[in-house]
Structure formats: C-alpha cells, structure tokens
Design a protein that fits this description.
globular, 17 helices, alpha/beta
C-alpha cells in the first residue's frame, strides 16, 4: 500500500505543471487550501474551423471566461511554406489572461519542427499537432486524420516537433481513419515521443460527426497511457461532462480530476456558458463530498458564486450582441454577415442542446418539464430562421428575440 501511494505521489508530482500547482497538492483527508482546478477537470474551448474563429473566442473570453484554455484554428503548413508569414496570424495574448494554444496542421516532417520552434518563440503556451481533422481536402494532402494511417510517419513528425520545443506539446487525434485498428499503436507512439497530453475525439475520420461517439475508447486510452487525456465529443451538458470524467478516471491517481480534461466544441457555439455550468456542477459535488476544511469550503463557495454570476439571460444577450458587433467590423459585406448569422443559427437553435431539459440528469435547477415540446419548438425556429430572407439587421433581431424566448422557456439561465 505504501509503495502504491509513493508511486501515485511521484506520478502526480511530475505532471503537476499541467493541471495543478504543487502548492495545492492534496493528500487524502481534510485540506486547508484548495484550488478550483483541483476539483474539476481542466476545460478547453475546442478549435472549430470556420466557426470558433477569433471573433467567437474573444466574445466568449469577455462574457463567459470560465474555460481554462482555447486553441486556434489550423495553422496550415504546406511543404515549402513561408513560416514567418504563416504564423503572423497567431497572437498568444489574444485572450489574455486566458492562454491560447497554437494548432499546427501539416504533413511535412521537416517543417513541423521549424514551425513549432517559431511558434514557441512567438510565445505559444502550448503547441498542438492536429491528427483529427476529417475534411477530405485536408486528408487528401496527407494531413489531419490521414496521419493516423501511417504511424511511422506520424512518429517522425512528432519527434521533429518534440525536439524543437521545450514547452507543452499536445496532440489532437481521432480513433483512426477507416477504423480503430491502429488506435492503440498510435497511442503508444504518441506516448513514446514525449507528448505532454493527448486530446481524443472518439470517432474515426469516416464517421465524421455522426453518432454514436465511442466514449468507451477513452477508457481504453486511459488504461494504456499515463499522460493526461482530454476527452472530446458530444459534451452537451453537465451530465455528459460527469459521465466522461468517469471514463477518464485512473485508479493510480489519488484525485480523479488531476489527470484529465474536457474539450467542448459545438455545444459551446450555442451556449458558451456551458463551462460555467460544468464548473458549478463539479464544485457542488466537491462540497457534497464533505472532504474539505472550513477554509476549503469558503474558497469553493467563492468560486461557485463567480460561476453563478455568469449564468444570466442578460449576459447571454450581451454576448450575442458583442459577437454581432465584431462581425460588423470584420466582415466587409452584408452578404458575408448574413451568412455568418445563419451559421450561428444552427448552433443557437440546435435541439440537441436542450434534449436533457426536464430529465432527472439535468444540472439546471427548477427545470420545467418541457420535454419534446421545447425540442420541437427549437427545431421549428431553426428551420424558419434559416429560410428567412430579411435584411441583415432585421434577421439578427429575430434571432435574438427567438433565442431569448427559448432560453426563458428552458430555464437554461437565470432571468
């Protein structure tokens, strides 16, 4: 038993730079001080090409900054690409004080190390290699999830990047290309190349974003790896977040959340306060467990109150208005802005985001039992707004009005 505890202590100590500060390392029993990051998994805003752009990230950071870290869209490196020009779009201080990692997409092993070194010199707190993008254009060039088909070449790219940088290096991957046959082999290669953590989207390239999402494979990865794992895919509410952490728990880690993270993508497009909800949910569970000292309880209650302040309909409306203002500045033509508004409609009026309303698993207090009626109303509004041919300002006003209607009906936020 003593040997097991010593091993656990050592394993957590060498990983503490990812999730917790050594000062907050907690032993079993009462603790006098507590960091919020100790009681919840690290929360990541997912990179989503074409939608989770700079405007979206900046609006989220301004109104709902409860996520711990964000990642850029792809910084593509073609063979022979001019690296200084390619990385000029990256600003590590874009979301300050929240960190913004740089995501690289390439099939060029020689250039991978060079661009990683240049990004680190530019101030990137973390550099990530994308091995998960399912786009046919991307995989047709041998990048993204195509790298999972050739583990030996993937290893070459990883070693090139790891040798070039001293900071945090991560990989975002899928289960495979056509199937999962090479999943465990790729995991072993990633671990052997000195990667600091891996984000796993548990679908193959061929599956795209279709259901089901194979969460059981996260448990396979957890048993095979000692590095931190970030789970991604179909986290739409607090119950989903809790269920995924149960699969990511490790028997040899004293605290279940030290060695894991959660990445939220499409759900955050429609309800960016999901990170505040998840934090509130995990803080409440930590308080219920009763393993905290009086000081620890006070600290968590302060953090809980901070997340409560984020959960209001007024703040949601301010977020959407701020996003629209940025579109007006960044997008030249009204036609471009209308196209962007309609992209956002698909996210704001996504029926899946409200499927849990009224269920026993809902983390929303006093949720009205609306069930299928709300689901149908959200889908009806989505289709109607997408067909709307109104001019830009009128369309945005309709979107805002109907979205507020849905939020008030659902009980998703405080009034």
């Amino acid at each position: 038993m003593l040997e097991r505890f010593v091993f656990c202590f050592f394993l957590c100590y060498i990983r503490n730079d990812f999730f917790i500060k050594q000062d907050f390392f907690c032993f079993p029993g009462k603790v006098s001080e507590v960091a919020i990051s100790y009681y919840i998994p690290k929360l990541f805003l997912a990179p989503m090409e074409g939608v989770a752009d700079r405007a979206f990230r900046m609006s989220c950071a301004k109104f709902f900054p409860q996520f711990d870290e964000a990642t850029t869209e792809f910084i593509r490196l073609p063979r022979g690409g001019h690296i200084p020009s390619l990385i000029s779009v990256y600003d590590p201080h874009e979301l300050s004080p929240l960190p913004l990692a740089a995501q690289v997409m390439t099939h060029c092993a020689e250039g991978a190390g060079q661009i990683a070194r240049a990004l680190e010199a530019r101030g990137a707190p973390r550099i990530e290699l994308n091995c998960g993008c399912p786009s046919n254009t991307v995989v047709g060039r041998g990048a993204g999830s195509a790298l999972l088909e050739d583990p030996h070449y993937l290893q070459k790219i990883l070693l090139s990047m790891r040798a070039a940088i001293s900071g945090v290096f991560s990989v975002k991957m899928r289960l495979g290309y056509k199937d999962r046959a090479r999943f465990e082999e790729n995991l072993d290669i990633i671990a052997a190349c000195g990667v600091d953590h891996v984000t796993i989207h548990p679908r193959t390239k061929i599956e795209g974003y279709s259901l089901p999402c194979h969460w059981d494979q996260l448990e396979v990865a957890r048993k095979r790896l000692t590095m931190p794992i970030v789970g991604s895919g179909e986290i739409k509410n607090c119950a989903d977040a809790w269920a995924m952490t149960q699969l990511l728990q490790s028997d040899c880690i004293p605290t279940p959340y030290q060695n894991m993270g959660l990445m939220v993508g499409r759900a955050a497009l429609g309800k960016p306060w999901i990170f505040a909800q998840i934090k509130r949910f995990f803080i409440a569970k930590a308080l219920q467990e009763g393993l905290l000292s009086v000081q620890g309880q006070k600290k968590l209650l302060v953090d809980l109150n901070a997340t409560e302040d984020a959960l209001s309909i007024d703040k949601a409306m301010q977020w959407l208005e701020h996003l629209y203002v940025i579109w007006q500045i960044k997008l030249v033509s009204s036609k471009q802005r209308v196209r962007r508004i309609k992209q956002q409609i698909n996210s704001l009026f996504d029926p899946r985001l409200y499927a849990h309303i009224g269920s026993v698993h809902s983390c929303i207090p006093s949720t009205p039992p609306l069930g299928e009626r709300l689901h149908e109303r959200v889908e009806t509004l989505r289709k109607s707004l997408l067909r709307d041919q109104s001019e830009e300002a009128q369309l945005f006003l309709r979107v805002k009005t109907h979205w507020k209607e849905i939020l008030m009906a659902s009980g998703e936020l405080f009034i």
